[in-house]
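Input sequence (558 aa), recorded before submission:
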Amino acid sequence: MSELAMKEYIAWIKENGGTFQKLDFKDDANGIGSVYATDTVHENECFATVPFRLAITEKVARKAFPSLSDVSCRVVMALFLVHEKLAGDKSFYAPYLNVLPKKIITPFYYTEEDMRYLENTNLATATGERKNLVYKSFQQMRGRLSNDMDQDQVTWDDFLWAYTVLTSRAFPYTLIDPSHEAPSEVLFPLVDSLNHKPNTKITWMRSGNYETGSLSFVAGQTFHAGEQMYNNYGPKSNEELLLGYGFCFEFNEHDHVALKPNFSRDPNYQEKMAILQQCQVASGNEDTLIHYVHRSHIPDSFLKLMRVLVMTNTEMTSYATCTNKNLLDFIGYRNELAMLIMTNNLLTSRLHAIQKVALDRQNATWWQKYALMYRDGQADVLHSVRKMIEEMKQTVLKKMARDLKDDSLAAIPLLSIQNPERTRVYEAIESDPWVPLDDVVITPKKLLRDKKFQSAIEQLFEDEEDDVIVMLALIYERSKPNSPWQSFFRQAEKSCTGQEEEESVMELQDLYDSLFPSFSEAFPDVFDPSVFSFEALLWAEHILRNHTIDNPLAIVPL
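Predicted structure, token format:
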């Protein structure tokens, strides 16, 4: 901004009843307009007052464009800014408009190269979607101007400038009229000159009525001479700051990452959505499946959602009529491990997507550096949440180890909805030693520890983790009276009724016929026909379908 424009702006504020003291308006090192203290501003000192008559409100904008009564507040206010800008010195607001930045570099202004700094982040998608919506609103509004304003005068560049002025500088209208209920915004000259800094102690004091009143700034802390003075826009994440204001912070305690698991192609999508809806599991956001995770917080509703997503058919059947969301706090050990593994995979995938993008950090522009701060913050949040998930997983494994040691096996189908005493899985057991997953589950490696059986399998198959191999290994293991998993095997037999879908049974019969009697003939001392019956294969398939986790493949015997 020019020195003359600033002098005219200050004079305009004072001529219209505005007051301020100890303030110097100048650009910072990046050319961003800022406010500095010329002398010590003490705590509880009022350093600026602006009358409401200087503010640009929705009411003022709509008065200029009465035919656009159904257009959103922000769009009609952006149009009003363009209108006043075109009016030049004839506009009452000209001194204010003349000191506004010519361009506010939010992601809406990013070039293709700039957008690489947002690649694989939520903000990359949000920027494109939001900008398209703004452009659509611009086109619709522009086509309706008729006699209010020559539509050829309203360019996309001017409208985008005005729109970003509002995203970066507007305040809630309730500062003028606290009783106003509909969402509305206001531009406050002078008041909007202070940049944002989290945790800055400052008070906005309103006085008078919405027509003749004023807004004052009162310092809640001391600002020393030469120090930049800040406002506090409230708790905002880097994502919100970068998109709306064009800047962010190296570490922002309010950072979050939006997660939305995509299970629309799940064959049981409708059944799982029904459970979520009848248990009223929702994020509270417009899209109820989108959840925001923070460095130190994972929403309970997100964990409940993920538990439903990894449900087996048996689990879905057990919860089909459930209406109590508290029963989704813990479903069973298999479900909990599957949930934690899937959540970790989701977080890891997002983290790797951010980290794999090679960017020039050394020669980044100042706005690209802000984008780097944002993406680094996203990576840090994902890393922190992964750590929390791993800690939750270890707690589950410790509890499983205790139950195995005590031979405490829940009744089949091993679900808390039938065994309510099993719900306190996250009790404090930090003092217990670290437990690896392999200690509490049945792995293919454990099932193949019998040398004779392993030798036969190696001659018959190539992939040791093939589902068919695991089923055969389960049948073989069950035939051993001293197997450590006999209690689990017997429990599983009780729930294996054989009442499977006809198509599934036929497929399993085809599989059985392709294996036997040829396997028994080739290795009679391993594949005993009296042990490897079709009913045994049904039983093994039942375990594989209802008691396993993936990545790594393992059977949960609790």
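Checked by second reader. The mean pLDDT is 92.
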